[in-house]
Amino acid sequence: MFPSIRSIVKRIPFKGMIPAFMVIALTLFALLGSADEDACRKTGIYILNQSQVNSYFTRNDGPCTYWRHHYLLTIKPEDTLIIYEDVDCKTEYFSKNPTYNVYKSLDANQDCRVRILLDRTLSDL
Question: 111 near 78, Cβ under 8 Å?
Fold first, then answer.
């Protein structure tokens, strides 16, 4: 005679499965939550000047500062960084100044580094 469904269900160890499912669920929630974190928030995003020209910049309305080509700048989320073409910091290098979020969106490999090329394009480094 075939065993009944009730006797089959009684043999499955449900008591051990519930804690296992809870551990798996909590682990997945933790991993999914950490995926949205900004890895560059503390260190900032490094911007390499590969435009082959020396530029100037102001950070948070500070003084006009010289920025040599092939040198790095760091921008953090709270910073306002404006890049200029001239020593007087009057002519902006970009028509629409990139923000931290723009630089972060270009960082495809998540190593917190981007670059500015000669034709005023931004790309991942």
Answer: no
